[in-house]
Amino acid sequence: MDLTFPSSITQVLLIEDSSQIGHARRTAQKLAESLGFDEADAGRVALVVTELCSNILKHASHGELHLRPLPRPGGQGLEAIAVDRGQGFDVHACLTDGYSTGGTQGIGLGAIARMAEVFDVHADARGAVLLARFFRRGDKAPDIALGVTQHSLHNDPACGDAFQVHISDQGISAVVIDGLGHGEEAERAARAGVRAFAQAPFANPLVALEDMHLAMIGSRGGAVALVQFNPSADRLDFIGIGNIGATLLSPERGRGLASHPGIVGGQYRKAQSFDYAQVCGQCLILYSDGLQSRWNLRDYPGLIFRHPAVIATVLHRDFCRGRDDVTVLVIDLEMPHA
User: Fold this and answer.
1) Tens digits of per-residue pLDDT, 227-238?
2) Which domain range does residue 81 map to?
3) Which of 147, 171, 176, 179 has the fewest CB atoms in 10 Å of its CB?
4) What is the 3-state secondary structure (H, E, C) of 77-114?
5) Could you give phi then psi for residue 20, rounded to 5 degrees?
6) pTM of the full predicted structure?
7) What CATH number is given to the structural domain containing 218?
8) 221 with 181: CB under 8 angstroms?
9) What domain count does the chain have?
10) What's the pLDDT tens digit per position in 25-39?
């Protein structure tokens, strides 16, 4: 399998009153149609998005709907995530058909879980994040255990963060780049680095970093974190320059991955690649400095076991600084499918 997850800004729709539900439904349906969904599958997306947005208003009075195209081996899927800061709810009860806390018919989460190819949820006293992923008819390939959320400062069309993930028989190779500052010039720097990375994503990490450095000379430059996961060897190689955060997590413990100071495309001392053994089954989180670094998943019981897209969205919801572009990339490091 060869699959690329390209950099793209998460589409965010505010859900603050019932009049916005129709707009969210139409937006999601139009996105599904643009991704090649047929009428029936696009209608399924519209129905679930309506329920997700209604759920936000029922349980939290306001929140957001996040939409993203989802690269698939045979085309495109669609991801919808409902985000709120309400008081949470009993997930198991709400998954039961007929259960309602808001005086509605209660078709709710049980119906969503059946209509979406992938459904997951995390809810606690801080709020709830509900994930629904949709695949086109005939797409039977397994879900990719990867989640990302990316947002530009003040919804600027230009984003100074960029990422790219390549998945192949060799494993997983991913890069996150934070161009200095924000806006168009930062975006130009980050995209130059990503284009260089894409030429040979599984090259030796030091060679790949040098290629990105040369491509970013003449731009503002930026911070770079590059990871390569080899499932056959059960090893992760990591190289970082600047302040892209990187953490490996298991249910038992977490460890930060060390980066070097400097600016790719500017100046940095000779870099070193670090390798980490026996990482299969762990969760890798990469994040730009638009996200605070003082988070701990242990403060969210059970979150480590949720889908990577849910983890990324919870971290963004609770730890976004609000003064820079922000990217959170979460990957479950899995053994290849038999």
Assistant:
1) 999 999 999 999
2) 10-134
3) 171
4) EEEEEEEECCCCCCHHHHCCCCCCCCCCCCCHHHHHHH
5) -85, -10
6) 0.94
7) 3.60.40.10
8) no
9) 2
10) 999 999 999 999 999
